[in-house]
């Protein structure tokens, strides 16, 4: 399909899902369960309207995947209206880091000792499989920014954290596959990709959110501007 057909197809599908949102909430279904058969119907086995090759169209698939992940994580982040000092964040950190590291390690060990996989491939598979899916877990996440609870908040925040916390292990797996084993490479990965990447990502995320929130409040109170962005601001 050309660009105009892509936009038309995506627009029709999204409009139809938005109109049917009320009906879908009444049924024991999730939107993912509807998107799957729809994509099959539009694919090579159905109407052949969409025909993507996993290798030839890798660039297009990568961009589509990035957009889906960014939208999913951004929508999950908007629901977490808690200050950084809240104790509920400790639950999120335990799930996203302690549980994540253990899960990656267990998957890697199973791959190495039970399936005979090289360490690089085993760690890479662990980094890919360990994170939970923020899209598929949407049914048990926070439904609105003011709905707080340990279980729902933990799942929602962990869905936003886990991709970032699993990414260093994906890089480690790729490093072991592309470079010969070298202690200096491992130390560089640990210091740059794991420690610095994780800490900097958390600080930048909270810092940018705090700066934007304060700037919007300043525009509202001083200049009477930026009206209508209340959903992006956490309560004081």
Features:
236 residues; mainly alpha; globular
How does this model look, in words?
- 17% of the residues are buried.
- Helix 4 runs antiparallel to helix 7 and helix 7 packs across helix 8.
- The termini are far apart.
- The protein is mostly helical.
- It has one domain.
- The model has no long low-confidence stretch (mean pLDDT 79).
- The longest helix has 41 residues.
Helix/strand/pairing category: mainly alpha
Quote the distance from N terminus to C terminus: 48 Å
Biggest beta-sheet profile? none
Strand content: under 5%
Unreliable stretches (pLDDT < 50, length at least 5) are: none
Return the average pLDDT rounded to an integer.
79
Helix count equals: 8
Q: Radius of gyration, Cα only, in angstroms?
A: 21 Å
Instruction: Tell me the series of helices and strands, N- to C-terminal.
Output: HHHHHHHH
- What is the approximate shape? globular
Number of domains: 1
How would the blueprint of this fold be written?
Elements: H1 3-19, H2 21-26, H3 31-42, H4 58-78, H5 88-113, H6 119-129, H7 150-178, H8 183-223
Helix pairs in contact: 4-7, 5-6, 5-7, 6-7, 7-8
Short structural summary:
By secondary structure, this protein is mainly alpha-helical. The protein is built from eight helices and no strands.
